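Consider a concrete sample entry:
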Amino acid sequence: MGKATRYLAETPKRATNVSINETQMKEAKELQVNVSRAAEFGLMQAIAEKRAELWVEENREALMSSNEYVEKHGLPLAKYRQF
């Protein structure tokens, strides 16, 4: 069992209503896909993507400053790079 699967199995659940495309639900049923688990994985992915997006926004100034420094002065310790 993978780390994410174990996490999902061990955490408390909360019932909720979700509207899902009828064709997708039919196919999921035919393929025996656990819709709740698939929804949880999808939600985990969406949360991770949003957190990454927010992090970039929050750190945009520092990233731009760092990039400007590298453009001006090159990479620190570049002479030691072996690639």
User: Anything to note?
Assistant: The chain has three helices and no strands. The mean pLDDT is 92.
